[in-house]
Design a protein that fits this description.
The structure is a single chain. By secondary structure, this protein is an alpha+beta fold. Strands 1-2-3-7-6-5-4 form a 7-stranded mixed β-sheet, sandwiched between helices. Strands 11-10-9-8-12 form a 5-stranded antiparallel β-sheet. The longest helix has 19 residues. The structure holds biotinyl-5-AMP. The site of biotinyl-5-AMP (BT5) has 29 residues, from helix 1, strand 3, strand 6 and strand 7. The site of biotinyl-5-AMP has 29 residues, from helix 1, strand 3, strand 6 and strand 7.
């Protein structure tokens, strides 16, 4: 990809998981900028052991290897950089109503999931890459041409997933979307490197985040709490007001709930 750091693009017809592939490469010392894109994943993964579904040849399944020189506490901004680049590319493809549901979903105006982002880092075993900042592998699955209609979805995704094709009413060129995504990602990744850029990422996340301003339930490993999402911290974390206090959520599942429910 000219004029970007994404020169090494590896293409697979079928692979278990593009994230898994890049984590192995990162452990062996691969530099920032390696990209993997696949027509099909046999073990596409989501967060917390969940899986990512996509039939062969229909959707965009891509991972990038980043090595941002940032504090571990700022790593969510790498997820945000990828989500924002995808938003840019998706809007350019004609779907204006896309927004980010914190922490890692792209959704349509009805809250249906168009894409999911998965950031993984494997810090201890990645130390072999001397002189390089530790890696973070960020993968994204974007529903491009599947589902074509609601009836394509398996029962567990009915009403929950949506595609670019459904949203725009036309088939979308996966390769063009992929290249637009990488072009949009370059300045976003550059932004990770300096305080002003990181402030821009957090500000753009706030502007495009549908979670802020809504009533949420936050599910954490040690329990849940409800509150109103009021903002995004400089690190890209979700700020939630709850019973007179403010909590900053670093990681967790967030459910949008109706006010008063
Ligand atoms: C995610 O996890 O949303 C992150 C998905 C990341 C997938 C990409 S594809 C390229 C790269 N390589 C990988 O192996 N993974 C990444 P999470 O928030 O845990 O959401 C997973 C949940 O989303 C599942 O449990 C389903 O309920 C739902 N889901 C699965 N496939 C979906 C789809 N195509 N569209 C919408 N929702 C889906």
């Amino acid at each position: 990809m000219p004029e970007t750091r994404f020169a090494d693009i590896r293409r697979f017809r079928s692979i278990d998981s593009t994230n898994r592939y890049l984590l192995d490469e990162a452990r062996a010392g691969a530099p920032e900028g390696m990209v993997v894109v696949a027509d099909h994943q046999t073990a596409g993964r989501g967060r917390l052991g969940r899986s990512w579904e996509a039939p062969a040849g229909a959707n965009l399944l891509v991972s990038v290897l980043l090595r941002p020189a940032i504090d571990p506490g700022q790593r969510h901004l790498a997820t945000s950089a990828v989500a924002l680049a995808a938003v840019d590319a998706i809007r350019a493809a004609g779907m204006l109503g896309v927004s980010i549901k914190w922490p890692n979903d792209l959704v349509d105006p009805e809250g249906r999931k168009l894409a999911g982002v998965l950031a993984e880092s494997d810090l201890p075993s990645a130390s072999a890459a001397e002189g390089q900042p530790p890696p973070v592998v960020v993968g994204i699955g974007i529903n491009v041409n599947w589902p074509a209609t609601e009836s394509d979805l398996p029962p567990e995704l009915a009403g929950l997933a949506v595609s670019l094709r459904q949203s725009t009413g036309t088939r979308v060129d996966r390769e063009a979307l992929f290249l637009a995504f990488l072009a949009a990602l370059e300045p976003r990744v550059a932004d990770l490197a300096a305080p002003a850029g990181r402030a821009r990422l957090a500000g753009d996340l706030l502007a495009d985040c549908t979670t802020v301003g809504t009533r949420v339930r936050v599910d954490l490993p040690d329990g849940s709490f409800e509150g109103t999402a009021t903002g995004i911290s400089p690190e890209g974390h979700l700020v939630v007001a709850t019973d007179g206090a403010t909590r900053t959520v670093v990681a967790g599942d967030v459910v949008h709930v109706r006010a008063g429910s």
